[in-house]
Amino acid sequence: MRPVILAAGDDAAIAIDAISQHAELMASGIVLVDSKSVDARKLDLLPERLPLLMVSGVLVPVSDSMEQIARRIPHAEAVEISASTPPSCAEGFDAFSAVLIDFLERRLPRATPEYRQGSDARTLRDALGCFATGVTVMTAKDAASQPVGLTANSFTSVSLDPPLLLTCIAKSSASSEVFQMAEHFAVNVLHIGQQPTSIRFSRRNEDRFGATPWEPGLHGTPVLTGSLATFECSRHAVHDGGDHIILIGQVERARFEPRRDPLLYFRGKYRRLHFS
Ligand SMILES: Cc1cc2nc3c(=O)[nH]c(=O)nc-3n(C[C@H](O)[C@H](O)[C@H](O)COP(=O)(O)O)c2cc1C
Question: I need a surface site. Which of 74, 111, 154, 183 has the fewest CB within 10 A?
Answer without folding.
Answer: 111
